Amino acid sequence: MMSKFTIHIADSLQDIPVAAWNTLAGDDPFLRHEFFSALHESGCVSRETGWSPQFITLWERSILRGGMPLYLKSHSYGEYVFDWAWANAYQRYGHAYYPKLLSAIPFSPVTGRRLMAETVAHRALLISAAMKIGQESNRGATVSSFHCLFPQEHEAREMEAAGMTLRQGIQFHWKNREEGKYENFEDFLGGMSHGKRKKIRQERRKVHASGIRFQWLSGHDISNACWRFFVDCYNKTYDDHRSMPYLNLEFFVQLGKSMPENILLILALRGDEPIAAALNLHNSHTLYGRYWGTKEFIPGLHFETCYYQAIDYCIAHGIELFEGGAQGEHKLARGFLPVRTWSAHWLAHPEFAAAIGDYLGREAQDIDHYLNELNDSSPFRKEVGK
């Protein structure tokens, strides 16, 4: 039955029709052809930066039935599911860990579909194609493994059934009220414990007492000067952490032009002078917090710009979910709840695969215990918290 389908590996987005790919992507902004094009055409994601596109496409004659973003990688930067210890172990035993195959959204720890196909059978073909690339390349001793980061749980389970090993992680997400969305920020605070509610109010008052006001700008409203200011802030954040930024001005400007309806830039201003900025992507139901930076330190400005303003935006626009980014236990006290994230891994070397599988099994038990502890520390009053 599957003989009518063909697999094509695309090393350039120009080989994939925009409309057909976006039909598969649906409303996920990180899967859109325009998002990947901005990454590739700006040079942020390329063979030179260690990301060589190997996108898998599944065709039924001339109809695109499935797709998977896939890269051949020469390092593990920009992933947020850390396998540096695995790479070091390979090196100690005289094996090459790189290159490896990676299905992920570069520099974006956001959960979403990685197997862009409607049926289980079609998704199985995508998984099989990726593993086949790894297996065939491995005979030439060039690819050590295949990894899929932040898939939806049902996709992770399908990969597990195909022979991959699952890994779990934890992020902190804000959720709008399920029955009757929050009317305003105070309505949201009303469900929290007294201590947490008081602290958030104090943080917000301090920022506003500093003379800071905020603007919400969609992609349509962001001028080139605003983009330059944001990128200066973004670069400063990386510089403050003694690291190199992954993205450049060209990427952000192109993203703003090609996906304006998916962009929210939050500007913090003193008078008419911008001093901080946070960039978010969104669709009708989810806001994704991505990057931020500031020109000066003001107590509480980070929380206000990145979290509270974003929550205000979600409430005002009826958005159900706010993913605030990777890690961050400090988010728990500010109304974000822990959620489990997934990744799937296949390693060609049998002994390493067994050892890492054993480690991930123990790690999953630790994740369970940690998740229980976090849920016991919910910032919401017990009668409304879940």
Model description:
With 386 residues, the protein is an alpha+beta fold. Helices cover 38% and strands 24% of the residues. The chain has an 11-stranded mixed β-sheet with strand order 2-5-6-7-14-8-13-12-11-10-9. Strands 1-3-4 form a 3-stranded antiparallel β-sheet. The longest helix is centred in the C-terminal third of the chain and has 27 residues, at 350-376. The termini are far apart. The mean pLDDT is 94.
Question: Top keywords for this entry?
Answer:
386 residues; alpha+beta; 11-stranded mixed sheet; 3-stranded antiparallel sheet; 11 helices; 24% strand
Outline: globular
Report the sheet with the most strands, covering strand number, pairing sense and barrel closure. 11 strands, mixed
Terminal CA distance: 46 Å
- Let me know the number of strands: 14
Count of alpha/pi helices: 11
Helix and strand succession? EHHEEEEHEHEHEHHEHHEEEHEEH
Percentage beta strand = 15-25%
Task: Give the rounded overall mean pLDDT.
Answer: 94
The largest beta-sheet arranges its strands as 2-5-6-7-14-8-13-12-11-10-9
Flag low-confidence runs: none
Class from secondary-structure proportions: alpha+beta
Q: Can you give the helix content as a percent range?
A: 25-40%
